[in-house]
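Ticket reopened. Same input as before:
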Amino acid sequence: MKNEQIANLFEAIADLLEIKGEVVYKTLSYRRAAESIRALGRDLEDVRQDEGLRTIPGVGKALAAKIEELLDTGQLEFYNNLVEDVPEGLLQVLTLRGVGPKSAARYWKELGVTSLEELEKAAREGRVQTLSGMGARTESALLVSLEEYRRMQSGRLLLSAAEAAANEMLQVVRGIPGVEQAEIAGSLRRRRETIGDLDVVVAAIEPEGVLDAFVNSSLVLKVLAAGGSKASVILSNGVRAQLWAYPPESFGSVLQYATGSQAHNVRLRERAQRQALSLSERGFKTRDGALIPCSEEKQVYERLGLPWIPPELREDRGELDGDVPPLLEDGDLHADLHTHTSWSDGANSIEEMARAAKEAGLQVLAITDHSQSLVVAGGLMPDEWQRQHEEIERIQDKLGDSPRLLHGAEVEILADGRLDFPDDLLEEMDIVVASLHSGFRQEPAMVTSRLLNAIQNPYVDIIGHPTGRLLGRREGVALDMEKVLAAAEERRVALEINAHPERLDLNDAYARRAVEVGCLLAINSDSHHVSGFANLPFGISVARRGWVPRNAVVNAWSKKQLFAWLDRNR
DNA sequence: GCCGTTTTCGGCCCGACTGTTTTCAGTCG
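Engineering reply: fixed in the latest deploy. New output:
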Protein backbone atom coordinates (compact mmCIF):
# COMPACT_ATOMS: atom_id res chain seq x y z
CA MET A 1 0.00 0.00 0.00
CA LYS A 2 1.30 3.41 -0.95
CA ASN A 3 1.83 6.50 1.18
CA GLU A 4 -0.95 8.50 -0.40
CA GLN A 5 -3.51 5.76 0.17
CA ILE A 6 -2.48 5.35 3.79
CA ALA A 7 -2.60 9.12 4.36
CA ASN A 8 -6.08 9.24 2.82
CA LEU A 9 -7.22 6.35 4.97
CA PHE A 10 -5.98 8.07 8.12
CA GLU A 11 -7.92 11.16 7.17
CA ALA A 12 -11.05 9.12 6.60
CA ILE A 13 -10.56 7.55 10.03
CA ALA A 14 -10.22 11.01 11.57
CA ASP A 15 -13.48 12.11 9.94
CA LEU A 16 -15.35 9.00 11.01
CA LEU A 17 -14.04 9.21 14.56
CA GLU A 18 -15.20 12.81 14.73
CA ILE A 19 -18.69 11.85 13.61
CA LYS A 20 -18.62 9.09 16.15
CA GLY A 21 -17.84 11.70 18.79
CA GLU A 22 -14.33 10.58 19.69
CA VAL A 23 -12.15 13.09 21.57
CA VAL A 24 -10.93 15.66 19.08
CA TYR A 25 -7.27 15.17 19.94
CA LYS A 26 -7.36 11.60 18.79
CA THR A 27 -8.68 12.70 15.41
CA LEU A 28 -6.01 15.39 15.25
CA SER A 29 -3.39 12.70 15.68
CA TYR A 30 -4.62 10.85 12.61
CA ARG A 31 -4.64 14.07 10.60
CA ARG A 32 -1.17 15.05 11.70
CA ALA A 33 0.20 11.62 10.85
CA ALA A 34 -1.46 11.82 7.42
CA GLU A 35 0.28 15.13 6.75
CA SER A 36 3.65 13.75 7.85
CA ILE A 37 3.24 10.78 5.54
CA ARG A 38 2.47 13.07 2.61
CA ALA A 39 5.58 15.13 3.31
CA LEU A 40 7.82 12.08 3.57
CA GLY A 41 9.08 11.88 0.00
CA ARG A 42 9.86 8.18 0.36
CA ASP A 43 8.02 4.92 0.80
CA LEU A 44 6.79 4.03 4.26
CA GLU A 45 8.14 0.51 3.68
CA ASP A 46 11.67 1.94 3.36
CA VAL A 47 11.25 4.06 6.47
CA ARG A 48 10.06 1.01 8.40
CA GLN A 49 13.14 -0.96 7.40
CA ASP A 50 15.64 1.84 7.93
CA GLU A 51 15.03 4.12 10.87
CA GLY A 52 11.58 2.87 11.87
CA LEU A 53 8.08 4.27 11.56
CA ARG A 54 8.19 5.87 15.01
CA THR A 55 10.70 8.42 13.73
CA ILE A 56 7.95 9.99 11.63
CA PRO A 57 6.57 13.06 13.42
CA GLY A 58 3.15 12.31 14.87
CA VAL A 59 3.48 8.52 14.54
CA GLY A 60 3.57 6.73 17.87
CA LYS A 61 3.09 3.15 18.91
CA ALA A 62 -0.55 2.80 17.85
CA LEU A 63 -0.27 4.46 14.46
CA ALA A 64 2.99 2.66 13.68
CA ALA A 65 1.21 -0.65 14.27
CA LYS A 66 -1.63 0.42 11.98
CA ILE A 67 0.79 1.44 9.23
CA GLU A 68 2.54 -1.93 9.54
CA GLU A 69 -0.75 -3.77 9.24
CA LEU A 70 -1.58 -1.79 6.11
CA LEU A 71 1.85 -2.39 4.59
CA ASP A 72 1.68 -6.10 5.31
CA THR A 73 -1.94 -6.91 4.52
CA GLY A 74 -3.34 -3.92 2.63
CA GLN A 75 -6.15 -3.95 5.17
CA LEU A 76 -6.85 -2.34 8.52
CA GLU A 77 -9.10 -4.19 10.90
CA PHE A 78 -9.62 -1.03 12.94
CA TYR A 79 -11.01 0.70 9.88
CA ASN A 80 -13.17 -2.22 8.86
CA ASN A 81 -14.71 -2.21 12.33
CA LEU A 82 -15.14 1.53 12.27
CA VAL A 83 -17.21 1.53 9.09
CA GLU A 84 -19.47 -1.06 10.71
CA ASP A 85 -20.28 1.64 13.26
CA VAL A 86 -20.27 4.76 11.09
CA PRO A 87 -21.38 4.62 7.44
CA GLU A 88 -18.65 5.60 4.99
CA GLY A 89 -21.14 7.65 2.96
CA LEU A 90 -21.04 10.26 5.70
CA LEU A 91 -17.51 11.17 4.60
CA GLN A 92 -19.00 12.95 1.60
CA VAL A 93 -21.67 14.61 3.72
CA LEU A 94 -18.83 16.03 5.78
CA THR A 95 -17.30 17.74 2.76
CA LEU A 96 -20.35 20.01 2.42
CA ARG A 97 -19.69 23.58 3.42
CA GLY A 98 -21.36 24.27 6.74
CA VAL A 99 -21.62 20.63 7.71
CA GLY A 100 -19.22 19.40 10.36
CA PRO A 101 -19.04 16.21 12.39
CA LYS A 102 -21.76 17.20 14.84
CA SER A 103 -24.36 17.95 12.18
CA ALA A 104 -23.40 14.91 10.12
CA ALA A 105 -23.88 12.74 13.18
CA ARG A 106 -27.34 14.19 13.80
CA TYR A 107 -28.47 13.77 10.18
CA TRP A 108 -27.39 10.17 10.43
CA LYS A 109 -28.75 9.30 13.87
CA GLU A 110 -31.94 11.36 13.80
CA LEU A 111 -32.86 11.22 10.10
CA GLY A 112 -31.21 7.98 9.05
CA VAL A 113 -29.05 9.77 6.44
CA THR A 114 -26.01 7.78 5.27
CA SER A 115 -25.20 9.49 1.94
CA LEU A 116 -25.38 12.79 0.08
CA GLU A 117 -28.41 11.59 -1.86
CA GLU A 118 -30.31 10.73 1.30
CA LEU A 119 -29.41 14.06 2.83
CA GLU A 120 -30.70 15.92 -0.19
CA LYS A 121 -33.94 13.97 -0.02
CA ALA A 122 -34.34 14.76 3.67
CA ALA A 123 -33.73 18.45 3.07
CA ARG A 124 -36.18 18.61 0.16
CA GLU A 125 -38.83 16.90 2.23
CA GLY A 126 -38.38 19.49 4.99
CA ARG A 127 -37.16 16.97 7.52
CA VAL A 128 -33.94 18.78 8.38
CA GLN A 129 -35.76 21.73 9.91
CA THR A 130 -37.66 19.45 12.22
CA LEU A 131 -34.47 18.84 14.16
CA SER A 132 -34.07 20.92 17.29
CA GLY A 133 -31.71 23.84 16.80
CA MET A 134 -32.10 23.69 13.03
CA GLY A 135 -34.45 25.93 11.13
CA ALA A 136 -35.55 26.72 7.62
CA ARG A 137 -32.38 28.72 6.98
CA THR A 138 -30.15 25.81 7.92
CA GLU A 139 -32.12 23.61 5.56
CA SER A 140 -31.96 25.96 2.59
CA ALA A 141 -28.24 26.60 3.25
CA LEU A 142 -27.77 22.85 3.10
CA LEU A 143 -29.42 22.65 -0.32
CA VAL A 144 -27.19 25.48 -1.52
CA SER A 145 -24.13 23.59 -0.28
CA LEU A 146 -25.27 20.46 -2.10
CA GLU A 147 -25.63 22.50 -5.27
CA GLU A 148 -22.16 23.97 -4.76
CA TYR A 149 -20.72 20.52 -4.19
CA ARG A 150 -21.92 19.40 -7.62
CA ARG A 151 -20.64 22.48 -9.39
CA MET A 152 -17.28 22.59 -7.64
CA GLN A 153 -16.46 18.90 -8.17
CA SER A 154 -13.48 19.88 -10.28
CA GLY A 155 -11.94 21.15 -7.08
CA ARG A 156 -8.64 22.91 -6.81
CA LEU A 157 -6.99 25.48 -9.04
CA LEU A 158 -3.55 25.19 -10.55
CA LEU A 159 -1.06 27.58 -9.00
CA SER A 160 -0.94 29.66 -12.19
CA ALA A 161 -4.73 30.07 -12.36
CA ALA A 162 -4.96 30.89 -8.67
CA GLU A 163 -2.25 33.49 -9.00
CA ALA A 164 -4.01 35.19 -11.90
CA ALA A 165 -7.33 35.23 -10.04
CA ALA A 166 -5.69 36.55 -6.88
CA ASN A 167 -3.92 39.37 -8.70
CA GLU A 168 -7.22 40.43 -10.21
CA MET A 169 -8.80 40.45 -6.76
CA LEU A 170 -5.82 42.29 -5.30
CA GLN A 171 -6.16 45.03 -7.88
CA VAL A 172 -9.83 45.57 -7.05
CA VAL A 173 -9.18 45.51 -3.31
CA ARG A 174 -6.29 47.97 -3.54
CA GLY A 175 -8.63 50.38 -5.32
CA ILE A 176 -11.11 50.46 -2.44
CA PRO A 177 -10.85 53.76 -0.55
CA GLY A 178 -9.31 53.37 2.89
CA VAL A 179 -7.19 50.32 2.01
CA GLU A 180 -3.65 51.07 3.15
CA GLN A 181 -2.06 47.71 2.37
CA ALA A 182 -3.24 44.52 0.71
CA GLU A 183 -1.40 41.22 0.27
CA ILE A 184 -2.09 37.65 -0.82
CA ALA A 185 -2.06 35.15 2.03
CA GLY A 186 -3.22 31.55 2.42
CA SER A 187 -1.96 28.52 0.53
CA LEU A 188 -1.23 30.66 -2.53
CA ARG A 189 1.33 32.64 -0.55
CA ARG A 190 2.77 29.34 0.63
CA ARG A 191 2.87 28.35 -3.07
CA ARG A 192 1.17 25.01 -2.70
CA GLU A 193 0.88 23.18 -5.98
CA THR A 194 -2.89 23.54 -6.11
CA ILE A 195 -5.10 26.09 -4.40
CA GLY A 196 -8.56 25.59 -2.91
CA ASP A 197 -9.51 29.20 -2.25
CA LEU A 198 -7.92 32.62 -2.20
CA ASP A 199 -7.06 34.68 0.86
CA VAL A 200 -6.35 38.38 0.70
CA VAL A 201 -5.49 40.47 3.75
CA VAL A 202 -5.93 44.24 3.95
CA ALA A 203 -5.01 46.94 6.44
CA ALA A 204 -7.61 49.67 6.87
CA ILE A 205 -8.60 52.13 9.58
CA GLU A 206 -12.24 51.19 9.02
CA PRO A 207 -12.31 47.50 8.09
CA GLU A 208 -16.12 47.29 7.95
CA GLY A 209 -16.32 49.91 5.20
CA VAL A 210 -13.73 48.06 3.11
CA LEU A 211 -15.51 44.73 3.50
CA ASP A 212 -18.78 46.37 2.58
CA ALA A 213 -17.29 47.87 -0.59
CA PHE A 214 -15.72 44.53 -1.48
CA VAL A 215 -18.81 42.35 -1.14
CA ASN A 216 -20.77 44.89 -3.18
CA SER A 217 -18.17 45.09 -5.95
CA SER A 218 -18.77 43.55 -9.36
CA LEU A 219 -16.02 41.04 -8.58
CA VAL A 220 -18.24 39.24 -6.10
CA LEU A 221 -20.90 36.83 -7.28
CA LYS A 222 -22.14 35.63 -3.94
CA VAL A 223 -21.49 36.34 -0.28
CA LEU A 224 -21.16 33.23 1.86
CA ALA A 225 -20.44 35.03 5.12
CA ALA A 226 -19.53 38.57 6.05
CA GLY A 227 -18.83 40.26 9.36
CA GLY A 228 -16.80 43.18 10.61
CA SER A 229 -13.40 41.54 10.09
CA LYS A 230 -13.69 39.12 7.24
CA ALA A 231 -15.84 38.11 4.35
CA SER A 232 -16.08 34.81 2.52
CA VAL A 233 -17.35 34.99 -1.04
CA ILE A 234 -17.58 33.33 -4.42
CA LEU A 235 -16.02 35.55 -7.08
CA SER A 236 -17.63 36.11 -10.46
CA ASN A 237 -15.11 33.68 -11.99
CA GLY A 238 -16.38 30.94 -9.66
CA VAL A 239 -13.37 30.97 -7.35
CA ARG A 240 -13.90 31.01 -3.61
CA ALA A 241 -12.13 33.77 -1.74
CA GLN A 242 -11.80 35.37 1.63
CA LEU A 243 -10.97 38.93 2.48
CA TRP A 244 -9.55 39.73 5.89
CA ALA A 245 -9.74 43.40 6.89
CA TYR A 246 -7.99 44.52 10.06
CA PRO A 247 -6.60 47.78 11.43
CA PRO A 248 -3.07 48.62 10.27
CA GLU A 249 -1.49 47.96 13.65
CA SER A 250 -2.58 44.27 13.34
CA PHE A 251 -1.67 43.82 9.68
CA GLY A 252 1.41 41.70 10.38
CA SER A 253 -0.51 39.51 12.81
CA VAL A 254 -3.37 38.82 10.44
CA LEU A 255 -1.07 38.30 7.44
CA GLN A 256 0.84 35.69 9.42
CA TYR A 257 -2.37 34.10 10.63
CA ALA A 258 -4.10 33.98 7.25
CA THR A 259 -0.99 32.59 5.57
CA GLY A 260 -1.00 29.47 7.74
CA SER A 261 -0.63 26.64 7.42
CA GLN A 262 -2.95 25.69 10.20
CA ALA A 263 -0.42 23.19 11.51
CA HIS A 264 2.33 25.82 11.44
CA ASN A 265 0.10 28.27 13.31
CA VAL A 266 -0.72 25.71 15.97
CA ARG A 267 3.01 25.28 16.58
CA LEU A 268 3.46 29.03 16.91
CA ARG A 269 0.60 29.32 19.37
CA GLU A 270 1.98 26.48 21.45
CA ARG A 271 5.25 28.35 21.52
CA ALA A 272 3.48 31.56 22.53
CA GLN A 273 1.83 29.70 25.40
CA ARG A 274 5.21 28.70 26.75
CA GLN A 275 6.00 32.40 26.91
CA ALA A 276 2.74 33.10 28.78
CA LEU A 277 1.25 34.65 25.65
CA SER A 278 -1.78 33.86 23.58
CA LEU A 279 -1.43 34.37 19.82
CA SER A 280 -4.25 35.20 17.42
CA GLU A 281 -4.87 37.14 14.21
CA ARG A 282 -5.07 40.34 16.27
CA GLY A 283 -1.71 39.93 17.94
CA PHE A 284 -0.31 38.60 21.20
CA LYS A 285 -2.32 38.75 24.37
CA THR A 286 -0.64 38.74 27.75
CA ARG A 287 -2.07 36.91 30.76
CA ASP A 288 -3.65 40.16 32.01
CA GLY A 289 -5.43 40.66 28.72
CA ALA A 290 -3.27 43.38 27.18
CA LEU A 291 -3.04 43.13 23.37
CA ILE A 292 0.29 43.44 21.57
CA PRO A 293 -0.55 43.74 17.86
CA CYS A 294 2.13 43.35 15.16
CA SER A 295 2.02 45.69 12.20
CA GLU A 296 4.72 43.67 10.44
CA GLU A 297 4.78 39.93 10.06
CA LYS A 298 8.37 39.51 11.15
CA GLN A 299 7.49 40.92 14.57
CA VAL A 300 5.30 37.88 15.20
CA TYR A 301 8.29 35.59 14.73
CA GLU A 302 10.67 37.93 16.56
CA ARG A 303 8.60 37.93 19.71
CA LEU A 304 8.65 34.13 19.67
CA GLY A 305 12.43 34.16 19.37
CA LEU A 306 12.33 32.91 15.79
CA PRO A 307 13.73 34.16 12.50
CA TRP A 308 11.14 35.11 9.89
CA ILE A 309 10.10 31.90 8.11
CA PRO A 310 9.53 32.01 4.34
CA PRO A 311 5.85 31.21 3.65
CA GLU A 312 6.73 28.20 1.48
CA LEU A 313 8.17 26.44 4.52
CA ARG A 314 5.23 26.99 6.87
CA GLU A 315 3.89 23.46 6.85
CA ASP A 316 5.05 22.13 10.21
CA ARG A 317 7.79 20.13 8.53
CA GLY A 318 10.51 21.13 10.97
CA GLU A 319 10.81 24.77 9.97
CA LEU A 320 10.70 25.93 13.61
CA ASP A 321 13.27 23.46 14.86
CA GLY A 322 16.48 24.87 13.53
CA ASP A 323 18.31 26.24 10.60
CA VAL A 324 16.60 26.60 7.29
CA PRO A 325 18.96 26.47 4.28
CA PRO A 326 19.30 29.58 2.12
CA LEU A 327 16.56 29.06 -0.43
CA LEU A 328 16.55 29.68 -4.13
CA GLU A 329 15.23 33.12 -5.18
CA ASP A 330 13.55 34.32 -8.36
CA GLY A 331 16.40 35.33 -10.63
CA ASP A 332 18.77 32.61 -9.42
CA LEU A 333 18.23 30.50 -12.53
CA HIS A 334 20.65 31.39 -15.32
CA ALA A 335 19.76 28.52 -17.62
CA ASP A 336 16.73 26.67 -18.94
CA LEU A 337 17.72 23.16 -19.92
CA HIS A 338 14.51 21.74 -21.37
CA THR A 339 12.60 23.63 -24.10
CA HIS A 340 10.88 22.93 -27.40
CA THR A 341 10.62 24.70 -30.75
CA SER A 342 8.53 24.40 -33.89
CA TRP A 343 10.97 21.70 -35.02
CA SER A 344 8.83 19.36 -32.89
CA ASP A 345 5.67 20.42 -31.03
CA GLY A 346 6.69 23.91 -29.94
CA ALA A 347 5.02 27.01 -31.30
CA ASN A 348 8.06 29.21 -31.91
CA SER A 349 11.27 29.12 -33.91
CA ILE A 350 14.68 28.56 -32.37
CA GLU A 351 15.52 32.21 -32.81
CA GLU A 352 12.28 33.38 -31.21
CA MET A 353 12.85 31.10 -28.25
CA ALA A 354 16.44 32.30 -27.90
CA ARG A 355 15.43 35.96 -27.92
CA ALA A 356 12.64 35.30 -25.42
CA ALA A 357 15.07 33.44 -23.15
CA LYS A 358 17.42 36.39 -23.18
CA GLU A 359 14.50 38.69 -22.43
CA ALA A 360 13.70 36.44 -19.47
CA GLY A 361 17.22 36.97 -18.13
CA LEU A 362 18.63 33.57 -19.08
CA GLN A 363 22.27 33.15 -20.13
CA VAL A 364 21.95 29.58 -21.35
CA LEU A 365 19.16 27.95 -23.31
CA ALA A 366 19.00 24.27 -24.20
CA ILE A 367 16.92 23.36 -27.25
CA THR A 368 15.62 19.86 -26.54
CA ASP A 369 12.99 18.85 -29.06
CA HIS A 370 11.32 15.47 -28.93
CA SER A 371 12.86 12.33 -30.39
CA GLN A 372 11.62 10.22 -33.30
CA SER A 373 9.22 7.85 -31.53
CA LEU A 374 7.03 10.56 -30.12
CA VAL A 375 5.24 10.95 -33.40
CA VAL A 376 2.28 12.88 -31.98
CA ALA A 377 4.69 15.60 -30.91
CA GLY A 378 6.59 15.69 -34.19
CA GLY A 379 9.65 13.96 -32.78
CA LEU A 380 12.86 14.50 -34.80
CA MET A 381 14.55 11.79 -36.84
CA PRO A 382 18.34 11.65 -36.45
CA ASP A 383 18.93 13.41 -39.77
CA GLU A 384 16.49 16.16 -38.79
CA TRP A 385 18.40 16.60 -35.56
CA GLN A 386 21.58 17.08 -37.62
CA ARG A 387 19.91 19.73 -39.75
CA GLN A 388 18.61 21.43 -36.61
CA HIS A 389 22.17 21.46 -35.34
CA GLU A 390 23.33 23.49 -38.32
CA GLU A 391 20.43 25.87 -37.80
CA ILE A 392 21.33 26.36 -34.16
CA GLU A 393 24.93 27.15 -35.08
CA ARG A 394 23.73 29.77 -37.54
CA ILE A 395 21.50 31.38 -34.94
CA GLN A 396 24.23 31.31 -32.34
CA ASP A 397 26.48 33.21 -34.74
CA LYS A 398 23.74 35.72 -35.34
CA LEU A 399 23.00 36.29 -31.66
CA GLY A 400 26.55 36.30 -30.37
CA ASP A 401 26.95 34.51 -27.06
CA SER A 402 23.72 35.68 -25.49
CA PRO A 403 22.09 33.44 -24.75
CA ARG A 404 24.47 30.56 -25.15
CA LEU A 405 22.55 27.82 -26.97
CA LEU A 406 22.94 24.16 -26.13
CA HIS A 407 21.68 21.60 -28.58
CA GLY A 408 20.20 18.43 -27.17
CA ALA A 409 16.98 16.48 -27.18
CA GLU A 410 14.23 15.27 -24.94
CA VAL A 411 14.74 11.60 -25.68
CA GLU A 412 11.97 9.09 -25.17
CA ILE A 413 12.55 6.33 -22.70
CA LEU A 414 10.91 3.56 -24.70
CA ALA A 415 8.55 0.97 -23.27
CA ASP A 416 11.37 -1.58 -23.02
CA GLY A 417 13.75 0.86 -21.32
CA ARG A 418 15.92 1.63 -24.33
CA LEU A 419 16.45 5.23 -25.40
CA ASP A 420 14.97 6.53 -28.63
CA PHE A 421 18.28 7.65 -30.18
CA PRO A 422 21.46 5.62 -30.60
CA ASP A 423 24.36 6.34 -28.28
CA ASP A 424 26.57 7.77 -31.02
CA LEU A 425 23.96 10.47 -31.66
CA LEU A 426 23.45 11.15 -27.95
CA GLU A 427 27.20 11.53 -27.58
CA GLU A 428 27.15 14.39 -30.06
CA MET A 429 24.62 16.31 -28.01
CA ASP A 430 25.44 19.12 -25.57
CA ILE A 431 22.72 17.90 -23.26
CA VAL A 432 20.28 15.00 -23.05
CA VAL A 433 16.98 15.06 -21.19
CA ALA A 434 15.41 11.61 -20.95
CA SER A 435 11.69 11.40 -20.28
CA LEU A 436 8.71 9.09 -20.20
CA HIS A 437 5.66 9.90 -22.27
CA SER A 438 4.18 6.45 -22.60
CA GLY A 439 3.76 3.17 -20.80
CA PHE A 440 2.48 4.83 -17.64
CA ARG A 441 0.24 1.88 -16.98
CA GLN A 442 3.08 -0.58 -16.73
CA GLU A 443 3.90 -2.05 -13.36
CA PRO A 444 5.76 0.49 -11.23
CA ALA A 445 8.74 -1.86 -11.01
CA MET A 446 8.98 -1.90 -14.81
CA VAL A 447 8.73 1.87 -15.10
CA THR A 448 11.37 2.19 -12.39
CA SER A 449 13.74 -0.07 -14.29
CA ARG A 450 13.19 1.97 -17.46
CA LEU A 451 14.25 5.09 -15.58
CA LEU A 452 17.23 3.29 -14.10
CA ASN A 453 18.29 2.24 -17.60
CA ALA A 454 18.14 5.82 -18.76
CA ILE A 455 20.16 7.00 -15.77
CA GLN A 456 22.87 4.45 -16.53
CA ASN A 457 23.34 5.82 -20.04
CA PRO A 458 26.54 7.91 -19.94
CA TYR A 459 25.08 10.69 -22.07
CA VAL A 460 21.88 11.31 -20.12
CA ASP A 461 22.08 14.47 -18.00
CA ILE A 462 18.54 15.05 -16.79
CA ILE A 463 15.47 12.92 -16.16
CA GLY A 464 12.52 15.06 -17.29
CA HIS A 465 9.30 15.23 -15.22
CA PRO A 466 10.14 11.95 -13.47
CA THR A 467 6.72 10.70 -12.37
CA GLY A 468 4.77 11.94 -15.38
CA ARG A 469 1.88 13.26 -13.34
CA LEU A 470 -0.55 15.88 -14.62
CA LEU A 471 -2.23 17.70 -11.77
CA GLY A 472 -5.95 17.01 -11.67
CA ARG A 473 -5.71 14.71 -14.71
CA ARG A 474 -3.22 11.92 -14.22
CA GLU A 475 -1.54 10.39 -11.20
CA GLY A 476 2.19 10.05 -11.43
CA VAL A 477 3.77 6.61 -11.69
CA ALA A 478 4.30 4.97 -8.30
CA LEU A 479 8.04 4.71 -8.89
CA ASP A 480 10.52 3.25 -6.50
CA MET A 481 11.83 6.77 -6.03
CA GLU A 482 14.55 5.74 -3.58
CA LYS A 483 16.17 3.57 -6.25
CA VAL A 484 15.87 6.30 -8.83
CA LEU A 485 17.38 8.87 -6.48
CA ALA A 486 20.23 6.59 -5.48
CA ALA A 487 21.11 5.83 -9.09
CA ALA A 488 20.85 9.47 -10.12
CA GLU A 489 23.05 10.51 -7.23
CA GLU A 490 25.69 7.96 -8.16
CA ARG A 491 25.68 8.88 -11.84
CA ARG A 492 25.38 12.62 -11.10
CA VAL A 493 22.27 12.76 -13.25
CA ALA A 494 19.93 15.60 -12.31
CA LEU A 495 16.25 15.05 -11.70
CA GLU A 496 13.96 17.69 -13.09
CA ILE A 497 11.57 19.90 -11.25
CA ASN A 498 9.38 20.64 -14.23
CA ALA A 499 8.05 24.17 -13.76
CA HIS A 500 4.92 23.79 -15.85
CA PRO A 501 2.05 24.48 -13.42
CA GLU A 502 0.29 21.33 -14.53
CA ARG A 503 3.33 19.19 -13.80
CA LEU A 504 5.47 20.51 -10.92
CA ASP A 505 7.19 17.16 -11.08
CA LEU A 506 9.19 16.26 -8.96
CA ASN A 507 6.98 17.62 -6.22
CA ASP A 508 8.17 19.34 -3.04
CA ALA A 509 8.40 16.19 -0.92
CA TYR A 510 10.49 14.27 -3.48
CA ALA A 511 12.65 17.32 -4.10
CA ARG A 512 13.44 17.51 -0.41
CA ARG A 513 14.24 13.82 -0.26
CA ALA A 514 16.42 14.15 -3.37
CA VAL A 515 18.52 16.80 -1.67
CA GLU A 516 18.78 14.66 1.46
CA VAL A 517 20.38 11.85 -0.51
CA GLY A 518 22.68 14.21 -2.40
CA CYS A 519 20.92 14.30 -5.76
CA LEU A 520 21.25 17.13 -8.23
CA LEU A 521 18.12 18.89 -9.47
CA ALA A 522 17.30 20.96 -12.54
CA ILE A 523 14.40 23.41 -12.71
CA ASN A 524 13.19 23.67 -16.29
CA SER A 525 10.27 25.36 -18.00
CA ASP A 526 9.63 22.68 -20.65
CA SER A 527 8.55 25.69 -22.73
CA HIS A 528 6.64 25.04 -25.93
CA HIS A 529 6.16 28.77 -26.49
CA VAL A 530 8.05 32.02 -25.86
CA SER A 531 5.69 32.68 -22.95
CA GLY A 532 6.79 29.47 -21.22
CA PHE A 533 9.79 30.97 -19.46
CA ALA A 534 7.33 32.81 -17.20
CA ASN A 535 6.63 29.44 -15.59
CA LEU A 536 10.11 29.10 -14.10
CA PRO A 537 9.05 30.79 -10.82
CA PHE A 538 6.56 27.96 -10.25
CA GLY A 539 9.47 25.54 -10.31
CA ILE A 540 11.37 27.75 -7.91
CA SER A 541 8.34 27.62 -5.59
CA VAL A 542 8.50 23.83 -5.56
CA ALA A 543 12.22 23.94 -4.78
CA ARG A 544 11.67 26.38 -1.94
CA ARG A 545 8.89 24.23 -0.52
CA GLY A 546 11.30 21.31 -0.78
CA TRP A 547 14.02 23.11 1.22
CA VAL A 548 16.30 22.87 -1.82
CA PRO A 549 19.51 24.89 -1.43
CA ARG A 550 20.83 26.86 -4.38
CA ASN A 551 23.91 24.69 -4.84
CA ALA A 552 21.80 21.58 -5.54
CA VAL A 553 20.25 23.11 -8.65
CA VAL A 554 22.42 22.78 -11.76
CA ASN A 555 20.84 25.65 -13.65
CA ALA A 556 21.51 28.01 -10.76
CA TRP A 557 25.22 27.26 -11.16
CA SER A 558 27.68 29.46 -13.03
CA LYS A 559 28.14 28.72 -16.73
CA LYS A 560 31.56 27.30 -16.01
CA GLN A 561 30.29 24.91 -13.37
CA LEU A 562 27.29 23.93 -15.49
CA PHE A 563 29.41 23.15 -18.55
CA ALA A 564 31.92 21.19 -16.52
CA TRP A 565 29.06 19.04 -15.25
CA LEU A 566 27.64 18.51 -18.73
CA ASP A 567 31.10 17.47 -19.94
CA ARG A 568 31.63 14.90 -17.21
CA ASN A 569 31.12 11.91 -19.52
CA ARG A 570 31.61 13.52 -22.92
C1' DG B 1 -3.34 9.14 19.89
C1' DC B 2 1.02 11.83 20.60
C1' DC B 3 4.53 13.70 23.46
C1' DG B 4 8.14 15.73 27.19
C1' DT B 5 14.64 21.99 28.93
C1' DT B 6 7.67 22.39 33.17
C1' DT B 7 5.48 16.56 32.29
C1' DT B 8 6.00 9.14 31.00
C1' DC B 9 0.44 11.55 32.78
C1' DG B 10 -2.16 15.28 31.62
C1' DG B 11 -2.08 18.23 28.71
C1' DC B 12 -2.95 19.17 23.69
C1' DC B 13 -4.52 26.93 19.68
C1' DC B 14 -7.61 30.82 18.72
C1' DG B 15 -11.19 34.01 17.23
C1' DA B 16 -14.84 35.34 13.62
C1' DC B 17 -19.17 34.27 11.83
C1' DT B 18 -23.81 31.96 11.61
C1' DG B 19 -28.13 30.38 13.08
C1' DT B 20 -30.54 29.37 16.53
C1' DT B 21 -30.68 30.64 20.59
C1' DT B 22 -32.17 33.60 25.39
C1' DT B 23 -26.31 32.53 26.35
C1' DC B 24 -24.20 29.24 22.85
C1' DA B 25 -22.70 25.35 19.85
C1' DG B 26 -21.01 24.36 15.50
C1' DT B 27 -18.11 25.40 11.62
C1' DC B 28 -14.26 27.39 9.51
C1' DG B 29 -9.63 28.78 8.59
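The mean pLDDT of chain A is 94. Chain A has three domains: 3-152, 157-313, 335-566. Please confirm and we'll close it.
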